[in-house]
Amino acid sequence: MEETEKVVLASSLCKEYQIGDFVIEALRDLNLEVAKGEFVSIYGSSGAGKTTLLNIVGGLDEPTSGKIVVFGHDLAAYDENFLATFRSAYVGFVFQSYNLISTLTAFENVAFPLELAGWAEKCIGGRAEELLKLVGLSHRSNHFPAQLSGGEQQRTAFARALANDPPLILVDEPTGNLDLETGLEIVQILEELKGRGKTIIVATHDRRIMQLADFTVHLKDGRIVGK
Amino acid sequence: MSKIAFPVKDLARRKFQTSLTIIGLTICTAATVFLTIFGENLGFEVAFVTGGKLSIGFSNIFSRFVSVVGFLNLLAGASITSFLVFIMMSKRMQDIGVMKATGCVTGTAFTYFLTELSIVAFISCIAGTALGILTNFACVHVLNTLGFSISQKPLNINAIFFVFLASILCSHIFGVWPVIKAIRAKPAEALSALYELGMASQLGKPVLSKLGFTLKMAYRGLVRRKSATIQAIVCLAAVLTLTTLSVAGGVIAKQTTQSYVERAICKDVALVCHPDISAQYVNFLSRFFETKETQHLNYSDSKYSISQHLISRLSSIVGLEVDARFVSEATAYEVQVIVIDPEADPPYIEVGDHRSSETLVLGVEPENIVNEWLIFGRALNKTDTYSALIGDSLALEIFSDVEKQEIKVFDQNFRIAGVCLDPLNNGNVVYVPLKTLSPKEEPQYNLLLLKIEPSLHSKVIADIENNISGTQLELVELNGVLEKHLGFLNLVWSSVMLLPLLSLVTATLCLLSYMMLSIAGQQREFGVMRALGTNPKGILNIILTQALIIVLVSGTIGVLIGLTITFAFLIPEPVITLNNIIMVATWLLSAFVILSLSSLYPAMKIIKKPVASVMTQP
Asked: Could B532 and A60 be called an inter-chain contact, meaning their C-beta atoms sit closer than 8 Å?
């Protein structure tokens, strides 16, 4: 049961990308443990491996070698169908470039994970509205992503990540594309989530977010060089 | 960079899209070139008929088919070019933005992309022309190997050049507008990651949850790429019209022309006559599909005469109908007539040019005729004296207005009662009442056409042989000749049935291109959906639903237009059997299945990629 206490357990994690004749080592022998309810921030220069690490923890990518166990599941051992169900149940993602589905309204984007999880239509509406209210976007629920500002898109992305009430939230540079004031709104949302006891891993350069973290990991050339 | 180097490099960099465009246009050009020269080798031209192996009536059916299909081929080729150039341009919007941002004037950018279009069009049309010529050689070779003497005529360079030029022109005219549309985009618009050529600004009603998750996502994707979706539907509808027309037209035209021949020659018919006459008659029948020289005979020679006594004996055989004839060759003359025309001054016009032609003249007893030709006008009847039924080739060769004119044979004028579609002497025939040919004497016969009741075949044949034994006459059954005629038509139409296959390939390429474009545009979103928990099957369902919607909409349009053209204009008095309907339905159903399945390729490609890699695609 000790492993389930540890929400994320990465050991000797390596990830290589083959680009033509070149092999790029995105992660090298990385070890990381994150316990339930912890808020971890990851920082490092561009290309340090932050996004790769988040992708592997969320089951979006698989390591070249090493082991990644999340909520007791050795992710490398499962096929794509299981991983899809796993992501739906355990993980909420917030991407740097928001990645809202452009053909769906803000409301529909938030409702999307609920539809996948098989929620009843009546409950979906209530839940999606509740989440949009939480991020202050009730009045924008029928707008398409192209009609929302960067900050509004990011807040919608947070609402979508929280839809299934996942225990693990992975956030990639949430304030990277936002101005200081809008970024503050995102920091407040993260603070709120921390208060709810969610396990949160955030790749960021934003000091306001790092200050919220239980610990911060410094990545350089795919290795952890400091905690 | 030179004005040629950039387009060449750009096309080479986008190998897949360039190849699809070239293959699509090549196939359309090849099909049109093939139809034009294959038709000519069979003895008819696309635009005007000059006679040849097939009788002119049959040629007209084929010629009309070739003209309509050829025209549609050009249209389909043009719409494919337009659609694929649209796709090519939509992938180049950021390049255009960068070009404009770095100071490239609109005219120069336009020249670059117009050069690309010209390169693609020229390569495709040259390859298509070569492929069409090769296909024609192959088809003629196959027909000759199978025993039909189809001469390989020298290539009609003018016709080929015309098709080549028409293809080049159409592809440029239809292909240039997406280039203009793309070039007109403002630099900031073109550079924006959110901008896509033809992207709809409105997304329709936001909530369609009742349609179900998969259908909703598929519908949204299609509506968002409204311009590309409409273009794909138009393009596929054009190609599917062509496919339907080729399939339905080909199958029905084959059945119909075979039925014309079957009725004209008649099933279960035998000849009784002198061996010289029977050989001559069979040669006249063979002129439908091969050039045959016939010997000069004196048809009135007493050795060819068949006695009235023998005819009476044969007529008494149960299960036998006797059609006694006098066959001869003569020159037929067009008789000029004067027709009243109140608008002319003086108020009449002369119709006819005193033309003449060598023809086969058959004196017949109208009440005993066993043939059942397709007749325009009316058949001869018992009371007719100075009326004639003439063959289709003769009608079109020497007459200006058949319904009003007369024909002169053996110094006698006959009013033209009707025109029949007749393979005998390749449609150069005149049927006149026998009593008019020899009014003063006992009628003279030199050929008997005997229609045998199939159930009594062996007995009747034995009876005939008993009756003619000891005479100079012989019995020749014509079923073998009929089979050869039907076989010939079957092979001709089977060659034409290559066309649906070709258009199916082009339709598949169109859909494939659209799906590649559509999937590339939605790739990131599919990645997000997977990240949020959609399994690969869910993504596959969305893509297949999109393909199915496109195929169903364009298929409905294409099939309806294709069938309307087939039945309304293409074939007179079409013969439609249950087998035909089943065959056409099978073809079209297969086309839809193949089309829908073709979208699996790009779909499988995307769901096999890791989610992270899909999401990082630009």
From this structure: no
Q: Tens digits of per-residue pLDDT, A52-108?
A: 999 999 988 889 999 999 999 999 888 888 888 898 889 998 987 788 887 788 998
**Distance, in angstroms, between A211 CA and closest chain B CA?**
28
Which chain A residues have a beta carbon less than 8 Å from that of B217? Answer: 103
**Pairwise CA distance, residues B423 & B393, whole Å:** 10
B476 and B278 in contact (C-beta within 8 Å)? yes
Cis previous bond, B342, omega within 30: no
| Distance to chain A for B188, nearest Cα, Å | 16
Q: What is the pLDDT of residue B389?
A: 92
Q: How confident is the model at residue B239 (pLDDT cuts 50, 70, 90)?
A: confident
- pTM, entire model: 0.70
Which residue of chain A comes nearest to B610, CA vs CA? A61
Q: Has residue A185 been placed in a domain?
A: yes
Interchain CB distance below 8 Å, A88 and B532: yes
Q: Name the nearest CA neighbour of A158 among A204, A101, A216, A100.
A: A100
Interface A-B: count of C-beta contacts within 8 A: 85
Contact call for B220 and A58, based on CB within 8 A: no
Distance between A145 CA and the closest CA of chain B, angstroms: 11
Residue A66 lies in a domain: no
Q: Lowest mean pLDDT of B301-305, B425-429, B517-521, name the range.
A: B517-521
Residue type, B431: Y
CB-based contact B611 A61, cutoff 8 Å = yes
Domain count, chain A: 1
CATH number for the domain that contains residue A88: 3.40.50.300
A79 at the B interface (CB within 8 A)? no
Distance between CA atoms of B386 and B432, rounded to whole angstroms? 8
The answer to whether B612 contacts A55, with C-beta atoms less than 8 Å apart, is yes
Query: Which residue range(s) make up the domain with A191?
Result: 38-55+77-219
Top pLDDT among B449 and B342 is at B449
Per the CB < 8 A criterion, the answer to whether B21 and B121 are in contact is no
Show residues of chain B in contact with A88, CB under 8 Å: 532-533
Does the structure's ipTM exceed the value 0.90?
Answer: no
Query: What residues of chain A lie within 8 A of the CB of B613, using their CB?
Result: 61
pLDDT at position B274 is: 93
Q: What is the pLDDT of residue A108?
A: 87
Q: Among all chains, which residue has been given the structure tokens 């795919």? A: A222
Cα B316 off chain centre by: 47
- Does a structural domain hold residue A21? no
Q: Which tops the pLDDT comparison, B431 or B98?
A: B431
CB atoms within 10 A of CB B561: 18
- pLDDT for the residue B390: 92
The answer to the question of residue A178 being in a domain is: yes
